[in-house]
Design brief:
With about 750 residues, this protein is of the alpha+beta class. The protein is built from 21 helices and 32 strands.
């Protein structure tokens, strides 16, 4: 490496001036990158990672401005209007490849355009170079793919094409802004391997931006941890993971699912990253810090050297300032030294003695009857048109399994394997082509309209993107309430039973907010001991006149002349629905005032909480959770997982948890089903599947998990090519035989 760094960022400050406030998105950031080195920038959403990247490339849009500081590239300060001179020397790869590729141009055209601008290549020379670049990034049959449009490529191939476009600039520095966040674990592993290979072959320097600590551990040489616009810790990767110096770094690492036993709650970081308005005069992490003490609210911490001399480790924390002479362990061990508002947070973060939900026996065996059973279930999509005669897509192809009451069954696999279609088929959002789904022995795949509505009340679905179930034009309260209105909640009592035989009830009829039960003999008007059974919750309560029921005041009247028993609810449906939404908001950790806010006013984690509340509205017994945490930061992810476990324990729910993040599934699931191309290829107790996988595909998935949270310590088994995505009728699931690659964690070098 050269004596001078390739890139040196010094005291960089990028400010967004809005009508209401100044947002200091990047507030005094400093770090360096040497030639051929990979440096990580890690932190939660809103920490300033992407704004830092855009500042380095001169891509900050109004009302943002680089207010002060310097960005030296090869010794030249880019902030002095020198970006154009180095535009091809620094390239960027964004999180969403779809946002980087123009859908109306072929992939080859877009790469050739970059070659024309930065290399001056045209004609056949540019075409040949575009093909070579696609080959370099591992796209098979590159000469054909160069003529395809972005929508014809899988997500992993799109990201490879974006990397090829970046390489067309022949850069010295590649800025990767969350390049693997939206990808399956196997495709993520392939992209990380690709970047590693390209770096070694081209001597590239890489700035790797992510919120995934496992990726940071595997892919980087040094790490900068950023929080609310400030770098709070700098360290070699291995040293940081072995002994984090800043409480925020420690909290991020503790939130990783693979580091916490499945029978314990995940440690969390309470609260949210603050919006940095104005220059910092205190520690911005203090309100969330378990080790904060009085000075943290009034003193802005400067970077202090930590660790052995010459290790290039610093942390911006008063715990490492000689003036305050405290350590993190001492601060946590001495509650009297903590501010009142911070006491007890470390205990909360530890997870205490809480246990994960689920009632399945550890070895996966159970004598109980299943709550839900799928037998030879098939869901095909017919895509034939006037111009196309393609056979049907076999999204789910002969799947059989059971789900037991109160358990969490994890369903894992790559994108396109049929996970989501299977989940939607189980809850009735997709129609099965053949096969059966039975709930408590009753088939639910071929129900009439009324019976289907009854089944859909008993099941719910939480989507990966909560915006799929939220309307931007509705307040979140209105969105949560929508299924209550659609299904006529509250479900009033539909059966009246009399233990002493005083009343012989018949079928109930509903009128407004009352239920009337015709009775052939009202027993001469004598007061009767009557049990009102609420069918939807199996809640039974013996009532006399005016005794309250859960959903409001219930009055029971026996009319001798009319020979009827009337049960009426004092509260209106409007009042009860509003109270129900307030209760749901509280259950998912939100407040009543959130009822009146719109989705865009919430963070990603809060929107997912709203999606969970909506799914719980009709008091379901079974929830399909479709990638509910895949788009969230590790700290927010931990809070949502804990919330789901708490709700399951409290309400006795049964979960099908769909994900491609195997570390998350291992933590929450009792049993795991592994799906590939419409088939379940392995099913068993979670711990057995993770520690002793029986199928090569499962082994490949496990070995692709990045970081020390992976249960697999042997050589990585890489799947060749992209997921098949779909099978068509008559196709065979051809092998994507795993190829070996030594498991090398860069942070350990």
């Amino acid at each position: 490496m050269s004596a001078d760094p390739l890139l040196a960022v010094e005291d960089l400050r990028t400010v967004f001036y809005t009508e209401r406030e100044e947002i200091h998105a990047v507030d005094g950031v400093s770090f360096t990158i040497d030639e051929g080195e990979t440096v990580g920038l890690v932190g939660e959403s809103g920490s300033g990672k992407s704004v830092t990247a855009r500042s380095i490339l001169g891509l900050v849009d109004e009302p943002g401005v680089i207010e002060s500081g310097s960005i030296h590239f090869r010794g030249e300060d880019l902030t002095e209007g020198r970006w154009e001179a180095h535009r091809g020397d620094i390239a960027i790869v964004f999180q969403d490849p779809g946002g980087s590729l123009n859908p109306v141009y072929t992939v080859g055209n877009q790469i050739r355009e970059a070659l024309r601008i930065h290399q001056g290549l045209r004609g056949s020379e540019a075409r040949d170079r575009a093909v070579a670049l696609l080959e370099d990034v591992g796209i098979p049959d590159a000469r054909r793919r160069v003529g395809e449009y972005p929508h014809q490529l899988s997500g992993g191939m799109q990201q490879r094409a974006v990397i090829a476009m970046a390489l067309a600039c022949d850069p010295d520095l590649l800025v990767c802004d969350e390049p693997t966040t939206a990808l399956d674990v196997t495709i993520q592993a392939q992209i990380l391997d690709l970047l590693d290979d390209l770096q070694r072959e081209e001597d590239l320097a890489i700035l790797f931006i992510t919120h995934d600590m496992g990726v940071i551990e595997d892919a980087t040489d040094r790490v900068n941890v950023i929080y609310a616009g400030e770098v709070v810790e700098r360290a070699p990767t291995g040293a940081l993971f072995e002994n984090p110096a800043h409480p925020y770094t420690r909290a991020l690492l503790r939130s990783i699912p693979g580091r916490t036993p499945p029978d314990e709650q995940l440690p969390t970081i309470e609260g949210e990253v603050p919006t940095p308005t104005g220059r910092a005069t205190d520690c911005r992490f203090a309100p969330r810090c378990p080790a904060a003490f009085g000075a943290c609210e009034r003193v802005h911490p400067e970077h202090q050297s930590v660790g052995a001399p010459g290790t290039d480790r610093t942390a911006a924390c008063l715990l490492h300032d000689d003036e305050f002479d405290r350590t993190l362990e001492e601060a946590v061990a001495d509650p009297d030294g903590l501010q009142e508002s911070f006491r007890g947070r470390e205990t909360q973060a530890d997870g205490g003695d809480a246990t994960a939900a689920g009632t399945a026996d550890p070895d996966g065996a159970t004598d109980a009857d299943p709550f839900l059973s799928a037998r030879d279930l098939r869901t095909y999509y017919d895509e034939r048109t006037l111009l196309s005669r393609d056979p049907p897509v076999k999204a789910v192809d002969g799947v059989s399994f059971d789900v037991y009451e109160g358990e969490t069954l994890g369903l894992v696999g790559e994108s396109g394997c049929g996970k989501t279609t299977l989940g939607r088929t189980l809850v009735g959002l997709e129609s099965a082509t053949s096969g059966t789904v039975e709930a408590e022995g009753r088939e639910v795949t071929d129900l009439g309209r009324g019976e289907r509505r009854d089944w859909q009340r008993r099941v719910g679905m939480v989507f990966q993107d909560p915006e799929e179930s939220l309307n931007d034009r509705q307040t979140v309260g209105e969105s949560i309430r929508e299924p209550l209105d659609a299904h006529g909640w509250p479900f009033l009592p539909v059966a009246v039973e009399s233990p002493d035989g005083a009343v012989d009830p018949a079928e109930a009829t509903v009128s407004g907010d009352a239920v009337t039960v015709a009775d052939g003999d009202a027993n001469g008007g004598r007061e009767a001991d009557i049990t009102v059974r609420v069918r939807e919750t199996d809640h039974e309560v013996a009532v006399r006149d005016g005794l309250p029921l859960e959903r409001g005041d219930v009055s029971v009247t026996v009319d001798r002349d009319a020979a009827t028993v009337s049960v009426s609810v004092a509260k209106s449906a409007e009042e009860m629905r509003r109270e129900r939404v307030f209760d749901l908001l509280g259950r998912v950790g939100l407040q009543e005032q959130h009822y009146y806010r719109y989705p865009h006013q919430f963070s990603g984690g809060q929107r997912q909480r709203v999606g969970i509340a909506r799914a719980l509205a009709l008091e379901p017994e079974f929830l399909v959770l479709d990638e509910p945490v895949s788009a969230l930061d590790v700290s927010v992810q931990a809070r949502i997982i804990n919330l789901l476990e708490e709700i399951q324990n409290e309400l006795g729910l049964t979960y099908l948890f769909i994900a491609h993040d195997l570390a998350v599934v291992r933590h929450i699931a009792d049993r795991v089903a592994v799906m590939y191309l419409g088939n379940i290829v392995e099913l068993g107790p979670a711990e057995a599947v993770y520690t002793d996988p029986a199928h090569p595909y499962t082994l490949s998935l496990l070995s692709a998990i990045p970081g020390s949270g992976s249960p697999w310590s042997g050589d990585r088994m890489r799947l060749r090519g992209a997921p098949g995505g779909v099978l068509r009728r008559g196709d065979a699931a051809g092998p994507r035989g795993p190829g070996g690659r030594p498991r090398v964690r860069r942070g350990g070098r």
